[in-house]
């Protein structure tokens, strides 16, 4: 009888676990509902729960998708040079931490690039705060330590990059390169999936 009792208890535990992982349980959770409200507030999902154009764009990006999508669609990147765009995206891929981060002069290009990224992130967090939710992986991961390095790298100034990175960034270079490559692939897929059909329509 004790073996039977244990088996029944185990089966009940399995049933509870299966339900807790099910779609039905997820939809009833407060955290899930808050995340949906955040997506609605950001216009990634409409009032009926359907994914919008902005939401489809975000689905093609696998890291910092909310922030990167906002940067793209809010036209923060439209008048930027390739080097400036790369510098802005470096804030989402940098894993190197140098204290409190760099302090840029207010008249420098890097101060403005940082402001564009930070203001967009603050806007996202503000929308989340309206529904009493917090998006943990956005602002927490933003680092501006490599913004200047990436800018000069993307501008082809290899000697400058070598001088300022040879002492302290070697351990991080590979991880940064991998994450930049992943982001690049995401953006290429995004262009093919969304821009190409529009081009064909007007051809």
UniProtKB/TrEMBL annotation:
Substrates-to-products reaction catalysed: ATP + H2O = ADP + phosphate + H(+)
Gene Ontology MF terms in the entry: ATP binding; hydrolase activity; RNA helicase activity
GO biological process entries: nuclear-transcribed mRNA catabolic process, 3'-5' exonucleolytic nonsense-mediated decay
Record-linked Gene3D superfamilies: 1.10.3380.30
CC per GO annotation: Ski complex
Pfam families: DSHCT
Top-level taxon in the UniProt lineage: Eukaryota
Record keywords, A-Z: ATP-binding, Helicase, Hydrolase, Nucleotide-binding
Domain ATP-dependent RNA helicase Ski2/MTR4 C-terminal positions: 46-201
Name of this protein: DSHCT domain protein
Record organism: Teladorsagia circumcincta
